[in-house]
Amino acid sequence: MLKIDKLQAGYGKVEVLHGISVEVPKGKVVTLIGSNGAGKTTTMRAVSGMIAPTSGEITLNGKRIDGLESYHIARLGLAHSPEGRRVFATMSVTDNLRLGAFPRYTGARPKGDVEADLEKAMELFPRLKERRQQLAGTLSGGEQQMLAMARATMLNPEVVLLDEPSMGLAPILVDEVFRIIERLKGQGVTMLLVEQFAAAALAVADYGYVLENGRISLHGPAEKLRTDPAVKAAYLGGGH
Ligand SMILES: Nc1ncnc2c1ncn2[C@@H]1O[C@H](COP(=O)(O)OP(=O)(O)O)[C@@H](O)[C@H]1O
Ligand SMILES: [Mg+2]
Q: How many domains does the chain have?
């Protein structure tokens, strides 16, 4: 379980998160909803150690992770599928996936059967299977996004952070991404999900938080947020 308690973080002197608290229980999907610039990506970055929190506590399965280096946090089982297309462009699809499992090769995480998990990932992401030897940089944007998600699962993670997995994708791929999230959920993968399609995110999630200008304004069971008039008006309007 991931627990964020009174987290404050930002960039330089600019504070973006003003003390947010979020819990992601084991086996659950929790979504963070908010407008552009609300601080969703900053939250993800603070959790995975890409930026250092200025205050507050973050724990992963009871262990403090705030202030630790990213590689250390990854070893503890936190996988981050970042916003944008952050894959290793000059490496093949399969090598990107193996890199996701890196801490399992070094003994920092239980090894298990990496090659079997790689095949499982290929089944979950058929588009990657067809392109397994292709260099990641030559994949389409949508395929790169899927590769980033698949790479995150290769850690055999305790918690996965998914930051806008459907960003920039054609509608048919957006549906595919949500189907994959649904299947990962079925496998018991614990996830913190940020999505522009708030209605779809609330449909797959168990619980949701609304982030406004770096503060949690509302939280509750996803089902409840979906029917909340204020949430509907602000985030579920127009075609989402
Ligand atoms: N690298 C950065 N340096 C300075 N400010 C940033 C940086 N990244 C994001 N911000 C600012 O932090 C705020 C929150 O951004 P972000 O967390 O990306 O929002 P969201 O993901 O919810 O759209 C915005 O005002 C944004 O301009
Ligand atoms: Mg963002």
A: 1
Q: What is the pTM (predicted TM-score) of this model? A: 0.95
C-beta 37 within 6 A of ligand 1: yes
Question: What pLDDT does residue 239 have?
Answer: 46
- Which residues form the domain of 224? 2-239
Q: What angle do the packed helices 114-124 and 93-100 form, to 10 degrees?
A: 120
CA pair distance 160, 177, nearest whole angstrom: 15
215 pLDDT higher than 80 = yes
Q: Is 36 in the pocket of ligand 1 (CB under 6 A)?
A: yes
CA distances for 146 relative to 38, 46, 96, 112, angstroms: 24, 23, 12, 23
Question: What's the whole-number average pLDDT of the chain?
Answer: 95
Residues 149 and 138: their CA atoms lie apart, in Å, by 17
The CATH number of the domain holding residue 202 is: 3.40.50.300
